[in-house]
């Protein structure tokens, strides 16, 4: 089931000159990166390097100090409607513990004005294998189940631009394999995927590009098949395997 | 790098000279008010301090707006300094108001709209510092402080009118009359009054400017530490 | 249209969560009733109170009780960072403000409506008057708008639970004064025309705090 979507801009993430300071220190320091239509770019870097900050800025959750962000050629801040093209997975699940899976996803479906509502939600839950648990409140979900539902949430409105922050956290073998497969099917035209991973080895099979965030900048950004040209990066990847 | 600008040095000198000069003017060259006696002279500094406090809070709100638009922490340093100075002037206004009230109305506190509003403003701006101290990053302190400073200053007229309206319905027998100081000002008094206002305005600018420089220096040190 | 739909969805979600968990309204109601008892003994109140005192007690109880609801409303969004989910929505962030401010208003109104008969009983005052309902609507409207704005602010501080009352009460004073005075007037059978100034003041606060929410909510929430 290859996913397609109708009303999309071209899926392209262009970042230039991005600066974000915390406690007077620049976490992102004149960062520039372009993720093209069809790319699946793995973002690597040490803990605290700024991967989460970058993804949150691109998702519109954090405001950068300076810099320009274009999604599909349109500035991120130009129009709130642009967020319809963004699918985000963060460190937290973004769900309400008192509501069940159906209710939570229905809430998001309504926020994104999805039509048809019910069938899309039901199908989405089914596609991540949580149908048997759909009436249980989120507080009863395990970390892995919550993460799977978060994946469903992020993809619910079929966005062109995917921003995933360590999506494998909490997933067991089965869950991880499921996500691998899903990503494989998502990667392709009319979609741009930027995915932060602390241990990126498994993703090198699926990814098209790899970007290294160090000291607030993207120091390396190249296609996976040209990894041999970057010995320092290869070594870093081996160390974090 | 942190050399004091000459204008500021001039302001410092002016303040040092003008405040005692104003004091001497008030003590020796203004007439003694017929009904209240010498204690009435507290009024000159009392009203000037209240005015300076209010002006400080308006400056703080404007500086807050400046930060929200420009996102340069210098604006926040100005805002913080203006509020700090404003709180001090407010305190002076309240204390001098109390000193004035005691011999005349035989009570340390009067629920007069202006005095009450000033007291509430002190609480509002003390809360500002409590808010800031609970926030982790300078950027959060600046951003949220700015919003609070703007919202706070806008509620001041509302607070004043509500208390004033309250007072007209529930008048207290012994209270300063509304819309005035409770006495008529002779030309010499008016002169001294306007001089006091001017002197406090100079003092206000001087204090805020100095305090802002201090805040900038603190920021520089913190940046160096990180 | 999508803006209003989003406001409605945020509101609806809040009601849904409240219905499921019932952490807001019952807690506020119990707290307000406890306050009524506390005041009764602390102030040695006689069973048939003057209108002014009854009005004052009503509003103090509501003001204190509603901070519990306001805190609850924002801490709900902190769990699992659900607030991020709202921020991701493709609509102006002020829609979140309206959705939450109005859900807070509905919950507090419910508490107020349940409180009126009880207070009528305790204090020998017939509080079930339409004029009073209008004052409560306007007063709580302004109070919860300001409260929602300040709750969003205080949630980001370490001291979040204690901070909201400290920020809210001094700023909400004009609302409380106007609400108490207008309520007192209604309870002493004054015609609404005489209470014009207070009602206008309440309306002014409603407009001002709603405008503040519209302007500043996004700034407060976006790091």
> Mind summarizing the main beta sheet of chain C?
none
Biggest protein-protein interface? A-C, 33 and 26 residues
Report the strand count of chain B: 0
Shape of chain C: globular
Q: Largest sheet of chain B, if any? A: none
The structural class of chain C is mainly alpha
**Got a strand count of chain C?**
0
CA-based gyration radius of chain B: 19 Å
Which residues of chain B form runs of ≥5 with pLDDT under 50? none
Instruction: Note the gap between the termini of chain B.
Output: 20 Å
Q: What series of H and E elements makes up the topology of chain B?
A: HHHHHH
Mean pLDDT of chain C: 91
The total domain count of chain C is 1
List the helices and strands and how they pair.
The complex is a heterotrimer of chains A (241), B (226) and C (223).
Chain A: E1 13-22, E2 25-35, E3 40-44, H1 51-58, E4 66-71, E5 74-75, E6 86-89, H2 101-111, H3 117-127, H4 143-155, E7 161-165, H5 173-186, E8 192-196, E9 209-214, E10 217-223, H6 231-239
Parallel strand pairs in A: 3-8, 3-9, 6-7, 7-8
Antiparallel strand pairs in A: 1-2, 1-4, 4-5, 9-10
Helix pairs in contact in A: 2-3
Chain B: H1 6-29, H2 42-70, H3 73-105, H4 113-133, H5 138-169, H6 187-225
Chain C: H1 2-21, H2 25-42, H3 51-78, H4 82-88, H5 94-123, H6 130-154, H7 160-187, H8 196-221
Helix pairs in contact in C: 1-5, 2-3, 2-5, 3-5, 3-6, 3-7, 5-6, 5-8, 6-7, 6-8, 7-8
What does this entry look like structurally?
The complex is a heterotrimer of chains A (241), B (226) and C (223). Chain A has 241 residues and is of the alpha/beta class. Chain A is 27% helix and 25% strand. Chain A contains six helices and ten strands, in the order E-E-E-H-E-E-E-H-H-H-E-H-E-E-E-H. In chain A, helix 2 packs across helix 3 (117-127). Mean pLDDT of chain A is 90; it is low at 1-8. Helix content of chain B is 79%, strand content 0%. The longest helix of chain B has 39 residues, at 187-225. Chain B is globular and about 60 Å long. The model of chain B has no long low-confidence stretch (mean pLDDT 88). Chain C has 223 residues and is mostly helical. Chain C has one domain (3-221). Chain C is built from eight helices and no strands. Chain C is globular and about 55 Å long. The B-C interface holds B 68, 120, 123-124, 127, 130-131, 133-136, 139-140, 143-144, 147-148, 150-152, 154-155, 158-159, 161-163, 165-166, 169 and C 149, 153-154, 156-160, 163, 166-167, 170-171, 173-174, 177-178, 181, 197-198, 201, 204-205, 208, 212, 216, 219-220, 223.
């Amino acid at each position: 089931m290859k996913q397609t979507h109708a009303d999309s801009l071209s899926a392209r993430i262009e970042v230039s000159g991005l600066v974000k300071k915390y406690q007077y220190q620049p976490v992102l320091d004149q960062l520039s990166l372009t993720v093209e239509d069809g790319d699946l770019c793995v973002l690597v870097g040490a803990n605290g390097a700024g991967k989460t900050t970058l993804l949150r800025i691109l998702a519109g959750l954090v405001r950068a100090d300076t810099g320009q962000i274009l999604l599909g050629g349109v500035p991120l801040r130009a129009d709130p409607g642009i967020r319809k093209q963004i699918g985000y997975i963060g460190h937290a699940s973004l769900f309400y513990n008192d509501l069940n899976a159906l209710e939570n996803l229905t809430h998001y479906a309504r926020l994104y004005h999805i039509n048809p509502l019910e069938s899309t939600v039901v199908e989405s839950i089914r596609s991540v294998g949580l149908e048997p648990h759909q009436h249980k409140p989120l507080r009863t979900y395990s970390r892995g189940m919550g993460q799977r539902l978060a994946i469903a949430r992020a993809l619910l409105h079929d966005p062109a631009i995917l921003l995933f922050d360590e999506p494998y956290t909490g997933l067991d073998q089965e869950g991880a394999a499921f996500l691998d497969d899903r990503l494989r099917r998502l990667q392709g035209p009319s979609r741009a995927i930027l995915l932060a991973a602390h241990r990126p080895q498994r993703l090198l099979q699926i990814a098209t590009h790899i970007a290294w965030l160090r000291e607030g900048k993207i120091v390396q950004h190249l296609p996976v098949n040209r990894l041999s040209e970057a010995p320092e990066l290869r070594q870093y990847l081996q160390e974090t395997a | 790098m942190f050399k004091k600008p000459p204008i500021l040095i001039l302001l410092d000198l002016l303040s040092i000279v003008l405040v005692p000069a104003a004091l001497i003017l008030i003590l020796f060259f203004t007439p003694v008010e017929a009904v209240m006696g010498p204690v009435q002279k507290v009024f000159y500094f009392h009203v000037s301090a209240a005015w300076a406090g209010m002006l400080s809070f308006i400056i703080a709100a404007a500086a807050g707006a400046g930060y929200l638009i420009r996102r340069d922490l210098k604006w926040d340093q100005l805002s913080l300094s203006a509020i700090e100075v404003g709180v001090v002037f407010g305190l002076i206004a309240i204390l001098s108001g109390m000193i004035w009230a005691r011999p005349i109305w035989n009570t340390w506190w009067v629920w007069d709209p202006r005095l009450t509003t000033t007291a509430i403003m002190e609480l509002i701006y003390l809360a500002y510092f409590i808010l800031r101290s609970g926030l982790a990053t300078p950027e959060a302190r600046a951003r949220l402080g700015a919003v609070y400073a703007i919202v706070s200053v806008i509620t001041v007229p509302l607070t004043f009118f509500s208390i004033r309206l309250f007072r007209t319905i529930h008048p207290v027998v012994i209270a300063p009359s509304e819309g005035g100081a409770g006495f008529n000002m002779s030309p010499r008094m008016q002169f001294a009054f306007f001089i006091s206002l001017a002197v406090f305005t100079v003092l206000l600018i001087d204090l805020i400017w100095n305090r802002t420089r201090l805040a900038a220096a603190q920021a520089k040190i913190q940046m160096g530490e990180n | 249209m999508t803006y209003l739909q989003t406001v409605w969805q945020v509101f609806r979600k809040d009601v849904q969560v409240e219905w499921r968990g019932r952490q807001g309204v019952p807690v506020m109601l119990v707290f307000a009733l406890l306050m009524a008892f506390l005041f009764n003994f602390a102030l040695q109140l006689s069973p048939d109170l003057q209108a002014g005192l009854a009005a004052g007690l009503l509003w103090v109880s509501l003001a204190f009780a509603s901070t519990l609801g306001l805190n609850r409303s924002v801490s709900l969004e902190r769990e699992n960072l659900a607030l991020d989910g709202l921020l991701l929505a493709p609509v102006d962030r002020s829609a979140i403000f309206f959705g939450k401010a109005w859900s807070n208003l509905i919950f507090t109104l419910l508490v107020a409506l349940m409180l009126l008969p009880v207070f009528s009983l305790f204090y020998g005052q017939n509080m079930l008057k339409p004029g009073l309902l209008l004052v409560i609507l306007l007063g709580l409207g302004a109070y919860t708008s300001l409260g929602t704005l300040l709750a969003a602010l205080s949630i980001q501080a370490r001291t979040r639970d204690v901070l909201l009352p400290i920020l809210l009460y001094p700023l909400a004073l004009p609302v409380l004064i106007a609400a108490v005075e207008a309520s007192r007037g209604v309870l002493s059978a004054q015609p609404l025309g005489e209470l014009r100034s207070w009602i206008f003041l309440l309306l002014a606060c409603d407009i001002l705090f709603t405008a503040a929410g519209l302007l500043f909510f996004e700034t407060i929430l976006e790091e």
